[in-house]
Amino acid sequence: MGYIHIYCGDGKGKTSAALGLAVRAAGRGRKVLIVRFLKNEDSGEVPALRQIPGIMVVPCEREFGFVFRMDEKQRAEAGSYYQKRFEQACCDGKNGTYDVLILDEILAACNYGLVKEIEVVDFLKHCPEKLEVVLTGRDPSERLLELADYVSEIGMRKHPFERGISAREGIEY
């Protein structure tokens, strides 16, 4: 039986936790689909994951930048793109090809209104019984928390960003 996981919080490591699960699952012969939201291709884990048999990382064909810098037109385009991306992930998750579906930063996409949370909820309520689904991001809604079987909150206690240090290649991205 598949379960629903949420990795959330303001700390570093939500995506890393999800990707660790992906590597573990692939190491045991399971097929993993990773769909990323609000991210681009410039992340160190992407080329490494694409080399692991059993893991499929869906490419990010479009980049929109930070949501808070988008104008209304850009936000509408991003919403359309990410909503379609989610709908395709649902189809791929339901077709039986994959054992694990990771929706990285889907919580942020929902919180910004770029993906309809009601459709995420509906998918989780009706996804295949054996599909393991992982959602990452900050501030999951009560609805999503209620549906989850696992909720891991990763809290920041200290981070170099607080001292003005930018994200570092190979460490944060």
Brief overview:
With 173 residues, this protein is α/β, with parallel strands linked by helices.
Q: How many individual helices?
A: 6
**Number of E-state strands:** 6
Beta strand %:
15-25%
Name the structural class: alpha/beta
Tell me about this structure.
This protein is of the alpha/beta class. 37% of the residues lie in helices and 16% in strands. It is built from 6 helices and 6 strands; from the N terminus they run βαβαβαβααβαβ. The chain has helices spanning 14-27, 45-49, 72-94, 106-111, 117-126, 142-147, and strands at residues 4-8, 32-36, 55-57, 100-104, 132-137, 150-153. It has a 6-stranded parallel beta sheet, sandwiched between helices. It is globular, with a radius of gyration of 16 Å. The model has no long low-confidence stretch (mean pLDDT 95).
Task: Please write out the topology.
Blueprint: E1 4-8, H1 14-27, E2 32-36, H2 45-49, E3 55-57, H3 72-94, E4 100-104, H4 106-111, H5 117-126, E5 132-137, H6 142-147, E6 150-153
Parallel strand pairs: 1-5, 1-6, 2-3, 2-4, 4-5
Keywords:
6 strands, 6-stranded parallel β-sheet, alpha/beta, 173 residues, single chain
